[in-house]
Amino acid sequence: MRIIITGGAGFIGSAFIRKFINKSDIQILNIDKLTYAGNLTAISEAEKQPNYTFLKADISDINLMKDTVGDFAPDILINFAAESHVDRSITNPDSFIRTNIFGTFSLLEACRDYVANSAKKDFLFYHISTDEVFGDLQPLDAPFTENNIYDPSSPYSASKAASDHLVRAWARTYEIDYIISNCSNNFGPFQFPEKLIPKTIIKVLQGEEIPIYGNGMQIRDWLYVDDHVEAIYSILTSGKKNENFNIGGSNEYTNISVVEKICSIIQNIHYPLLDKNFNANSLITFIQDRPGHDTRYAINSEKLKEHIGWSPSKPFDQRLEETVHWYVENRTWWTSLIS
Ligand code: NAD
User: Residue 146 and residue 141: Cα distance in Å, rounded?
Assistant: First the structure.
């Protein structure tokens, strides 16, 4: 199986590469621009493998994408590449429009050329999307299914929604087979320190204030990154096409409760730099809420469970504890990023 992965130096793409690079029947070409969020350390083992190639490039470079896709002749392209941080999309939406919308268009055009000019009939464009395209839920609403209407709230989620529409339009108009999976908030090793879980872990380890937007009662549905990439692999090897799948961990927690869990885990580890009497919860600081902050996301993954047979491998608390330990043990990785 020949797979082009875009954004494979990012958090989720690199987890996919680490997990599947050892499969003997897989050849991977990773295309990544190496923005601030891209990190080759996360895939250093893959770089030694003969079935792995890396190309530093921007997915918006349409001519380069056409040449690259045609030359590599993939069976599947998985588009992980994106600008992914909501806060950054509020202060600087331009790069979100360019990468998430124009970049996806550019890849679709490259794949259209490739399918038209080769004998390849069973090519699949696998697009990674987010539950944020559905907008937000009130506390008693049912979790998002694949049939919810798109109602994005932020420049980030609007750009992802637009890219999903492009993928479906290229499938309908040009017969490019696709899968779109819309996942909930991921967490795990190698996540860039701007996101809630790594940011909180690092703030506690450094004894610094933990900023919490508003009252911290926003609810997110947490998905461990390795469970996510297992789900992607199961879908792309299932033979399904031209469908959407929701991928969620069924772990709904308020932001404040996730932060308190992290404080308590680190307190119990007795991380040596912290005073024994140190109270991690005292670092929690409420700050002005983010504009347009979504109240709640929750994903119904029943379609995935029923048709693909996937479910999360371990409980949230156990995965959170493993993640905290990873950040404690990999201090050099994140100190280089925050300095
Ligand atoms: P990330 O920000 O960690 O990584 C993105 C990667 O894409 C980086 O390696 C970056 O260098 C690369 N990239 C950015 N712009 C590029 C461009 N123009 N050309 C080539 N490469 C470029 O993101 P992530 O958390 O790994 O997310 C991957 C995908 O999953 C994204 O599409 C995101 O929208 C989606 N998603 C993420 C989450 C989450 O919780 N992390 C949740 C739902 C959906």
Answer: 15
